[in-house]
Write a structure and sequence with these properties.
A hairpin with a 5-residue loop joins strand 8 and strand 9. The strands form four sheets. The protein has a seven-stranded mixed sheet, with helices on both faces. A four-stranded mixed sheet has the order 1-2-3-15. It has 15 helices and 17 strands. Helix 3 packs antiparallel against helix 12. By secondary structure, the chain is an alpha/beta fold. The chain has two domains: 139 residues, Aspartate Aminotransferase, domain 1, CATH 3.90.1150.10; 241 residues, Aspartate Aminotransferase, domain 2. The chain is globular and about 60 Å long.
């Protein structure tokens, strides 16, 4: 059994009593107040230490207190310009865009501030393209069962979570959800009104479901045949999480649009929409905009993070350690009746369990391990991409204890 040092206090930390008075209560927070981080570990106000398998919901790919990110932040501050707006040229934003284009299929990049914004913007851009190639009627967007694309109005309509959707009906029109079935998708794409299909190559919030390359290849063939844009939402599964820089690289399917966010700026708010020349050519000045997107400060930090996440050695370690983690989780499932299924790739894994996942998370927190859910009966693991084999093994050990 793998052991790592864990600092425990006699009583668990509690949520601040005054928080509910000041912060809109849209989150059910863990009863932990984080005050410090180091590597793959987080430290709470009460002195407890936790191995973090949440990565800030996939944001902190390089862990905590990273010296390189700190240096990039200090360097970005030296100009004294945190923000200029997009009325002016910005060398850091251009450098980041050129790096993203050079490393991907894309010809152009639009920067924004979050994953939901990136997806919302992608919907606008593909509708603009659809109008150019098929007229005003070519506007519909199809999403897949189990997908999660955000909680703004258009992205909420594309998100398959009834409890999120119900209070806000009527939802945005022209967006529908299809089963993960090529036959059904083929019938839906017969409509000349469809402009785009959006998919997560690995559905994160929807149970960590890895869409098979054969399915994605068949979908790519359909969309090309019907002149429909294909959007890959890589907000959670992109930028190294699968062991490839972009999740689409694992499948050999090249989409028309990719959306990114979470780890892109190392914890600073940033999203990006990558697109082909055909999509970009349809966009005119004034079609979309952002006040903060691609500003000099955040772009400088994001360029450093992107260069680090592009490192072939890091990606190889994620692939190798991720394969080992998958084998370890499947071995755990073989000896624990509480586990019904294990799914994942790289450093994103889902474990279906027979009792509420929230109960298992609470037990794991007491043992010093932080995890997430991906549905009521699925535990989700998102370790930082710097997590070592020893740390992964320790996490599996603590998960087994939590199951008990």
């Amino acid at each position: 059994m793998t052991t790592l040092p864990v600092v425990m206090a006699s009583t668990p930390s509690t949520q601040r009593d005054d928080e509910s008075l000041a912060i809109l209560p849209v989150y059910k927070r863990f009863p932990v107040e984080i005050v410090r981080g180091e590597g793959s570990r987080l430290f709470a106000a009460d002195g407890r230490s936790y191995l973090d398998f949440t990565s800030g919901i996939g944001v902190n790919a390089l862990g905590y207190n990273d010296a390189g990110i700190a240096d990039a932040i200090r360097g970005a501050l030296e100009s004294g310009v945190l923000h200029t707006s997009n009325l002016f040229h910005s060398a850091p934003g251009l450098a980041l865009a050129e790096a993203l284009v050079a490393r991907s299929f894309a010809s152009s990049v639009f920067f924004c501030n979050s994953g939901a914004e990136a997806n919302e913007g992608a919907f606008k851009l593909v509708r603009r393209w659809g109008r150019e190639v098929g007229g005003a009627d070519k506007h519909e967007i199809i999403a897949l069962r189990g997908g999660f694309h955000g909680r703004l109005f258009a992205t909420l309509a594309a998100t398959d979570r009834p409890q999120y959707r119900a209070p806000f009906r009527p939802l945005a029109a022209g967006i529908s959800i299809a089963e993960r079935d090529i036959g059904e998708l083929s019938r839906m794409l017969d409509r000349e009104t469809v402009a785009a299909v959006i998919v997560e190559p690995v559905q994160g919030e929807g149970g960590v479901r890895v869409l098979e390359p054969a399915f994605l290849n068949a979908l790519r063939a359909l969309t090309r045949e019907r002149n429909v844009a294909l959007i890959f939402d890589e907000v959670q599964c992109g930028l190294g999480r699968t062991g490839w820089l972009f999740a689409y690289e694992r499948t050999d399917v090249v989409p028309d649009v990719v959306t990114l966010a979470k780890p892109l700026a190392g914890g600073l708010p940033m999203g990006a929409i990558l697109m082909t020349a055909e999509i970009a050519a349809a966009v005119q000045p004034g079609d979309h905009g952002t006040t903060f997107g691609g500003g000099p400060f955040v772009s400088t930090v994001a360029k450093h993070v992107f260069d680090r996440l592009s490192d072939p050695a890091l990606l190889a370690r994620v692939r190798e350690n991720g394969a080992w983690l998958g084998e370890s989780l499947r071995a755990l499932a073989a000896r624990r009746d509480e586990i019904r299924a294990v799914r994942g790739v790289g450093y994103i894994w889902g474990i279906d369990v027979t009792r509420p996942a929230g109960e298992i998370l609470a037990s794991a927190r007491e043992a010093g391990l932080l995890m997430l859910t991906a549905g009521d009966y699925t535990v989700r693991l998102l370790p930082p991409l710097i997590a070592t084999r020893e740390e992964l093994a320790y996490g599996v050990d603590q998960l087994e204890k939590a199951l008990s």
